[in-house]
């Protein structure tokens, strides 16, 4: 019962912090938790343990530990929320100490420091008194909590669960909905680099002017640059006139003209 009171006080504190930070309870549902059916699974395991303990008393402790493990796994699946990992660790610690000892160990001295009357643990399978044979006694109910109405000792796992629950509520109430920042943000304007565009357009104009040559004898800078090293360019190999293409042809034509000029003319 004291664990429930501690958890309720933690939730109330988290809610007060959330409202102080101008939060809203409806924001706790965004985003929605994952695998919510695990809560029903854990509840079903506990009910089966309570009913089955009438036939076999240790079954309640075993299924209670299993219930805490299922809830710990559920909190771990939703670890993106602030405080969920703390809840998972606290529930796992409680399950571990129950499995090791068959019940939840309770420190009598911690109960006395809290102002509670130590209860008898021999008649119930849920709790057992801390002694020399207790395994991991520091995970049991060793933390005194002096509540005015019902002082009691709680376990470190209970404290972790209560702190995690307060963190989940306090931070979840102030969490923004997914997409709120994207809707409120101003999209960045794309600017094209003007200097680079001018240089590219100037290069394109030079290339276009070079391709407009009609006689084929003028080379552009691109043509000269594309000529492999060691080879003459088209300007160097282009003919200077429209005459014969070789020196032998020019020599033959010169000889024929000379012979016609020196030979006697035949008259009728």
Automatic annotation (TrEMBL):
Stretches with biased composition (Basic and acidic residues): 209-225, 258-268
Regions that span the bilayer: 36-54, 59-77, 83-103
Top-level taxon: Bacteria
Keyword S-adenosyl-L-methionine included in the entry's annotation: no
InterPro entries for this protein: DUF5317
Start and end residues of each stretch annotated as Disordered: 172-268
Keyword Chloroplast part of the UniProt annotation: no
A Pfam family reported for this protein in Swiss-Prot or TrEMBL: DUF5317
Keywords: Membrane, Transmembrane, Transmembrane helix
Full protein name: Uncharacterized protein
